[in-house]
Amino acid sequence: MKIIVLAALSISFLFSAFSQNPVYIPPTQSGTSFNLDLQTGQTQFLPGDMTNTMGANGSLLGPTLILQKNDNIQIDVTNNLGEPTTLHWHGLHVAPENDGGPHTVINAGDTWSPSFEVLDWAATYWYHPHLHHKTNEHVQKGIAGFILVKDPVEAALDLPRTYGVDDFPLAIQTKAFDANNQIIIESALDVNLMVNGTLDPYLDVPAQVVRLRLLNGSSERSYLFGLSNGVSIHQIASDGGLLAQTNTTNRLWLSPGERAEVLVDLTGMDGQSVDLMSYGSELPSGNYGAAQPGMGAGQTIPDYTLNPLNGNDFVVLSLNVQASTANPVTTIPTTLVNHTIWNEADANTTRNLTFSPVVMGPTAIQGPFLIDGQAFDMMVINQFVPFENVEIWTLTNNSPISHPFHIHDVQFYVLDINGVPPPPHQSGRKDVILVPSGQGVVRFITQFDDFYNDTLPYMYHCHMLTHEDDGMMGQFVVNAPAGVGLEVAGEIGEFMSVYPNPVENYVMVKVEGDFTRVHVVDVSGRVVLCSQLEQFGDTKLDLTGLNQGMYFITVPELDGAVKFVVSSSH
Hints:
The chain has 570 residues and is mainly beta. 5% of the residues lie in helices and 41% in strands.
């Protein structure tokens, strides 16, 4: 069976040099009300059997959502997959209840309807599932879509922005198929490269300046983009918006989850073709997609060397140049937008996160991988961030492979990589950064503003989806500012007040009425503390025996509970 699959993959790779299929350009939805129907289907990728896939409003991928900054929007997400999932708005700055992380499960048959104000800069974002242990499967099977945010600053620049004419969303992914043409969820034989779900792709483009919105939507692979004719590309945006100045380059490196907007000048090339390439032969060791994926000759991944994409140059997309449009953009801007970056001296907190394999030695590159020695636990809050804190996060990678680190809620600025200021393509607003293998260190700075919730967390994780699903993920809450009440449900709120907030070593409880007892209950429903209420005044509950996490205060005679978080283990 393995020989048959390898032969089929090799044939597919050989044919990829002949770009034969027009790239699928997803339809759009715009306005303030959006509908996404998550569903199963079948897609014809290869000759023979149809492939079982998933999509939004179709059998594969999903529509592009076009949002306007400062609009108040609602997105109705209906789950018709027949199994639970979530949907995360990757890169958008939203409250945790709207973020679509693993805690916001959409059960089969249910509809989730987040609503929020669009606060983000004009940029290319995307959406994809985020259910723990199932993220890679649901993305590999096809659920992903673009989000394009527009704003007046971007609109004032002379840029291509006619969707599907001179402005193209391009999601680059690789997949592996078995002998029955079904997607292999986790395999190093991801030789089938596709753009917007299209194998052997080509794109007809006008002979003028065009805009390519590049998304690395792959589960593990990094790409080093460039043009086959050696002409420069002009990067104008990173993950979270326009750069300060255009980055003109021959190579652009994107790891999983990263986005970049580039301009390509095709003026005068009517009738010619040029290939968008990935120069895998130039990727350094220690990166998935390089000839050697790990640091050290002994660090190998099963079947990795059998994949002809690894360590080689290959065509991603052929650009076939046609006649220009009636009103072409023919110039490349040099200055884009102003950036105000927080000063290191103004940081309130510095956090240190360390990446490591579970087992050291020759198989360390195969994972699983941990953050701060811990695998992800839905019931454990790993970081507690004060509202409006400016923070520096230091990421140290003690593993033999590079990891693309993604944080929800915020965009950040990279301060340095291995002590050196970031290269131009990583100098803008970011939500994913590749942390180099072999003791590589990245520092970034950000602020946690606008949203807080003492019990519902945001995620941070490796965006190699296999690593994420295997536990390379943590979570943080942004604590409410002092004086903001804890979350209360039911009639208990009429009789009880609880302080301080956030909770550390103790909590004060005041209950009005003829009640005698109060309980502290953990998330499994187990009573972990029972106390008599003071007849007069407040009752002090000592929490020093509790681990960090979510708890509830209840009174047996009352309906409801007060939910709170213990912010540190004791």
